[in-house]
Target: G-protein coupled receptors family 2 profile 2 domain-containing protein
Amino acid sequence: MLNFHTCTLSSIISIAIADIKNVSTDKISRITPLNQLVLDPPLPYHFELIVKDCCSAARYCCRNTLVKYHHRRDESPCPATWDGWNCFDSADEGMVNKQCPNYIYGGSNIKADYDRHSKKQCNAGGWELPDGLKEHTDYTGCMQNDDAQAKLIAGVIAYSLSVVFLLPAVVALGFFRPIRKSPMFILHRQLLISCLLYGVFYLCSTTFFVVSFAPLSGQVFENHIFCRVFFSVQLRYLRMTNFSWMLAEAVYLFRLLQTAQHSTDGETMNDYKIACWGVPGVITMIYFIVRGMNDDTGMCWIENSSNAWVEWMIFAPSLLAMGVNLLLLAVVVIILVNKIRCDPHLERIQYTKAVRGAVMLIPVFGVQQLLTIYRIPNTYYQVADQSLNGLQGLFVSLIVCYSNKTVRECFTKWRSTYQEKATLHTECRQRMSIQESGRLILKSPQVTTEHVQL
Model:
């Protein structure tokens, strides 16, 4: 026996929604399509698609079950039923598992996870219905909170560590005078700033949009213009600036080796700044306009556009920068090896610095992203991917700042100067204190003693 109540009702709703565009306006004066409902707060952009998918599944469940049991009697204690989300065939006593439908996660475009199932208990008297419920299915197995929480925690920890290391590094490279105007350290500082901004934006988006009870989480479902701009800056602009400054590091190192006899200390690196900050900005603005005109739906554009060519406006420059970086790194290593082999009496210190720069580019241009360029639907893999991406800023700061000999020498010199000034200041205060004490003694009145003769 089939539970006709929910199944038939869902089928009727499904047919009504599917055929609503073919009905004249006067016949649907009391029916408003889902995409025209004005509610506060508004429905998610994909709500209509979810309802249609769910109703289509209900209609299929009805028809399939009616055909299956039309010519034979079902003796099973638990009849076929539609619980509102999933279709359960008639079953004998025991636990019945059913794969979680895609639409409960937000649409049919979500990849199915075959390891997640809902559960329904069948007893001798029928389906288990606790507390007098008409339908009961355990969908806790379909929840993704554990996986999402693991990735979220990994990302927060990784980016927090990067921000903690990046902030002092940025300050240090801009504070010490000997390296403040050095072209190489200007590039290093700009790359660190790019990584720092991305980490700060990630932590802010997690705090204000993603976590439970986030103050601006409602804007995500509303697809608000503010969060669209915010995530476009974070996920598109700042990510491209990272790749741009990685490319700038490789290009400058290549130029340094090709023109080793020419000093580059006088360069202001303004051309690099305009290119690496400006070009990603122009591309992001074009992306924002084009996506707004062609695909304005989405939860604040956190996910990629349904039009693949729109996302390739971001993917293509990033992949191009990564490919050129790999090529330049290989060329740099070849040049170094050839020069050292041809003349073993060359000044090796100069090329040691270049080799360190080449090694620095390995984590700087994001080799870990090549290892994780294909997204495997595995929690451990995704946590590792999130951790490596988040720790990139930490690795870069360690290489270009904390382990850099020039930076350490500047810090040591600054600390010695600071200690000398502190010591001199202390001595001056002590001398002034002694002088003030002496003056007080000299100015104090002399005590006269009168001798009385008896």
